Hints:
- The protein is α/β, with parallel strands linked by helices.
- The chain folds into three domains: 2-146, 3-Layer(aba) Sandwich (Rossmann fold), CATH 3.40.50; 191-379, Alpha-Beta Horseshoe (pyruvate-formate lyase- activating enzyme), CATH 3.80.30; 436-487, no CATH class.
- It has 20 helices and 15 strands.
- Strand 6 (143-146) and strand 7 form a beta hairpin.
- The mean pLDDT is 94.
- The structure holds cobalamin (B12) and iron/sulfur cluster (SF4).
- Cobalamin binds at residues 10-11, 16, 18-19, 21-24, 26-27, 64-66, 68-72, 93, 95-98, 101, 116, 119-121, 123-124, 195, 197, 209-211, 246-248, 377, 382-383, 409-410.
Amino acid sequence: MKFLFFFPLTNKNKRHKVSPPLSLMACAAPLREQGIEVEIVDARVQPGYRREVLERMADADLLGVSSMTGYQIADGLEVSAAVKERYPEKMVVWGGYHPSLLPEQTAADARIDAVVRGQGEPSCLELAEHLDGGRELASIEGLSYRDGDGGVQHNPPRRIIDIKEFPPMPYDLVDVEAYIDFNRRVHGDQRRAVSYVSSFGCPHACGFCSNPEAYGRKWRGLNAERVVAEVTELVERYRLDRVYFDDNNFFASRRRVREICQGFLDSGVRFEWFATIRPTQVTAFEDEDLELIRESGCTKFMMGAESGDDQVLELIEKGGEAADVIEATEICRRHRIQPSYVFIFGFPTETWEQMQTTLGFMKRLKEIYADTRTTTLFFTPYPGTALTRLGQQHGYRLPDTLAGWSDFDARSVKTPWISEAQKKKVKQVADFYLPWAYPNQLAREKVARSRVKPLYRLFTLACRARVKSGFYSLPWEWHLARKLHLT
Ligand code: B12
Ligand code: SF4
């Protein structure tokens, strides 16, 4: 028996950085343990992927497609349609965040036979039993499928299984070098890096996040010993400089974090690592824990700050205050860990004054620690979040077919809570004036090496004056920087 898994393009212009498709590798691991052949085609690193899928489907029994909300749906549907046309008798199954959140719409699409909701590992094993003739679809928990009368049958949900029970991710199933090479060629990233995931789920329920609805609020983590053994083995096997932990909540257990960091140090294998952390988790750590984290190779904390306005933080149920972010930034400065924050503008009912409070707050963070990085996003009402429901109550209409979600991303979605002019202003201040007014270490080094040093200095002074005064009309610096390709 053979399963063919497909990871669609994540956007049209192929601009995202890439890393092996952990979702599909996770599903593959227990199948292979049972002697079932699994192949993965990843559209992001395999240029002739449509032909490749069709060829490899010749001796496969099932096509499995992973999809988040957005462009992956468009690409996944095209490939599924081609497979259905050439091999109408073969099963096409979708899984991942989007199908888990909207199984009815997904399974209603004629190009798809069934949807796996939530964890894929156990369901894939049971799908293999079904293909072997030993199991009815109706007995596979967490499965949604068309019942023949045009309706969609939803089997009862599957309880979350502790990921400790699953075998290690089979990195050998993909061409790891192809991912490293893509990031070097397309993004100029010379570091050899891959992602790894050490836990499943998140106990929190932020109002804009798909995670609680898709997978519930249980957190399960691999034990420290296994994480250390697997990660250091990966670093040595692929000569990695850096590892990204793609966990929803890597820092959920403080004891586990301490053991992992100590394990990395004791192993003698040196590499850099990043993970996502909540500001309240940073402030809860003891200084000695943070020293251990830094020493073990963590040089950056990726954090969702979301807003600098406490009322907005309450609205989005962030479970923390702006003051926590200030404190986390001060702690990061003390421990030489770069804080990298995501801010989201344009939540349902958020006012322009509140957005301006956030811009002022970002300036404060830069003043505390110039190496602070900020990324600006605009609220996108992904399915199944509390804030999306609030948006709907205020008249926002969501797509009502699977294909309708294909171009649903921060760039294309227009919500009534923020105008295009306001978005432009936010981007100018957050992505141009602030970083130029407070250059981080990398930018400072770049300027020091540059032949047009005085020009850079002039820009910094002009941008600093703007930020200090809060006067951003007639943004000549921004226009000039765009002309000179400085931004
Ligand atoms: C890595 C990652 C990416 C990577 C891509 C994945 C990769 N490895 O190459 C990149 C950087 C490209 C990316 C992009 C985006 N991402 Co992203 N990403 C993640 C992240 C951090 C990890 C996903 C992962 O690999 N998890 C580990 C694996 C093992 O778990 P899993 O994906 O949940 O898969 C399990 C099940 O879903 C299921 N399953 C999954 N696929 C399949 C397929 C089949 C056939 C079956 C049977 C089962 C199955 O089985 C798996 C094992 O149990 C998650 C957050 C998180 N920690 O989950 C966000 C997350 C998935 N991303 C999200 C978002 C919003 C985005 C972006 C829109 C962000 C942006 N602003 O551009 C884009 C979307 C691109 C697009 N629409 O096409 C949201 C999802 C929202 C949604 N409704 O889809 C998440 C949940 C973050 C969040 N908390 O909001 N992302
Ligand atoms: S945003 Fe992060 S902390 Fe909040 S629920 Fe989602 S995964 Fe958990």
